[in-house]
Amino acid sequence: MTIRHLQIFVAVADCGKMRAAAERLHISQPSVSQAVRELESYYNIKLFERLSQRIYITETGKKLLPCFQEKILLPSPRHIIDSFETMEGFINDTSSGNVIRVGGSVSVGTRLLPPMIKSLENEVPDVDVCVIVDNTAAIEGKIQRSELDIAVVELVKKDIYDDELVLVVGPEHELFNHPGIKLKELTKHALISRESGSVERNQFEQFLLEHDIKMKNKWSCSNTETIKKAVLNGEGIAILSRMVIEKEIAAGEVRVLNVENTRMKRKIKLIYHKNKYISQSMKQFIDICTDGRY
Description:
Blueprint: H1 3-15, H2 18-25, H3 29-43, E1 48-51, E2 54-57, H4 59-69, H5 77-95, E3 98-104, H6 106-111, H7 113-123, E4 127-133, H8 136-144, E5 150-153, E6 158-169, E7 190-193, H9 199-210, E8 216-220, H10 224-232, E9 237-241, H11 242-250, E10 255-256, E11 264-271, H12 280-291
Helix pairs in contact: 1-2, 1-3, 1-4, 2-3, 4-5, 7-12
């Protein structure tokens, strides 16, 4: 590797585009691309992700960048040697470690991600896991922008879990002891739901629209534990994922309303960008999820 390779790495990181880096260094774009490939191949690391015609610096690249931004253009041989030694040491330190950024929708993050992460840590003891929980639309965006490596959500891609949405009430609610109600009777009651943009809310609102049913949304919340407490206090009917409320159902703390024609099945999915580099930790996590080892 030469000092030129490192200059090109810094330029691409600073500019965010191969073409802009080439113009800054007064070389051709293919030369920039080739230098980055050679640097990645030589050290067997990934410095940039090329997703949807854009370039994103990886976590490894972000950690390396400060080593060179100030030193790389200095003419002193000592600075050059120091920079190479710093990079070699960093790469040796990180080559044995594994970093994976995992996302999950709110329901999934509450119920499925903890055992999945535990299984990954059991199989890959040195893994460094960063978990982000948000609504599905936000998680999708983070996947597209390479802010996450992989995510578990209620969308398309790999099926890993069967779930359904259920309407639940607490013991203080007037419908707690009802054996069953008609669909149109829902219009008489207040609804507690997830925030706008969540898959649970979108799916249920579409269901109501298809059946010409209107329910008053009493209030919404992004935190499922808060929604559970509201249900226990008898504040309304909540629409929730069965997997996040199953313990309370089994304990008799809440009941699933038996409403005619309200089966709302859904699949929990594993998603990642189609052009994503699959690291060993990421491959292990995919295997754990798809094989049900959690």
